[in-house]
Amino acid sequence: MGILQLGFLIDFISGPVSVGFTSAAAIIIATTQVKDILGLSFPGGKFLQVWTGMYEHIGETRLWDTVLGVSCIIVLLLLRKVKDIKIGSEDDDKEGSMEKRSRLKAAVSQTLWFLSTTRNIFVVLVCAALAYYFDTKNQQPFVLTGEVKAGLPQLAPPPFSATVGNHTYTFSEMASTLGSAIFVVPLLSILENIALAKVFFGGQV
């Protein structure tokens, strides 16, 4: 979308609609993650199903999964602010001269910036190392993803038919069932992505 300069499409959407897209995406993402933070496992992935399931299974909350999840959130929020820490005296900041800072201060400043920028990767690596450590001790205080199949999936064209129950639907039948939604849904997805990109990049998309 960035290469094709499709950001102008968002100009045709009103502000409230753009904010609605962004807020809805944030709520949906948060909803899909809450049950994992609590270590809960139950069927259903839709919005109401997830919240209903959490209410029904809240007594099954796993302590260490919750501690790890909340700790990661706190660490991410703290690391986000690390890059704003000022290194050096106020006089140096006012003059804005990097030459007047010592090499040590410059190195610390760059390290804090790097740590803040790569905070997501840092937290993932630390948690992975922690899970590996407990696994070597034959302990599993956290719910792990499980075995991941190695390699890439085999290259193949997308399926043009689907079997539901005892009936196989052809591509033309699926297209006729979807109707205009076959064009509207992808367009809305593109506009939602552009709206989110504008939020993160301060409207410079």
UniProtKB/TrEMBL annotation:
Residues 1-200 form the SLC26A/SulP transporter domain. GO terms for biological process: transmembrane transport. It is found in: Membrane. It comes from the Eukaryota. Its main location: membrane. The chain crosses the membrane at residues 6-30, 61-79, 111-134, 178-201. InterPro entries: SLC26A/SulP_dom (IPR011547), SLC26A/SulP_fam (IPR001902). Keywords: Membrane, Transmembrane, Transmembrane helix. It holds the Pfam family Sulfate_transp. It is a multi-pass membrane protein. One of its GO terms (cellular component) is membrane. This is Sulfate permease. It comes from Pararge aegeria (speckled wood butterfly). The lineage of its organism: Eukaryota, Metazoa, Ecdysozoa, Arthropoda, Hexapoda.
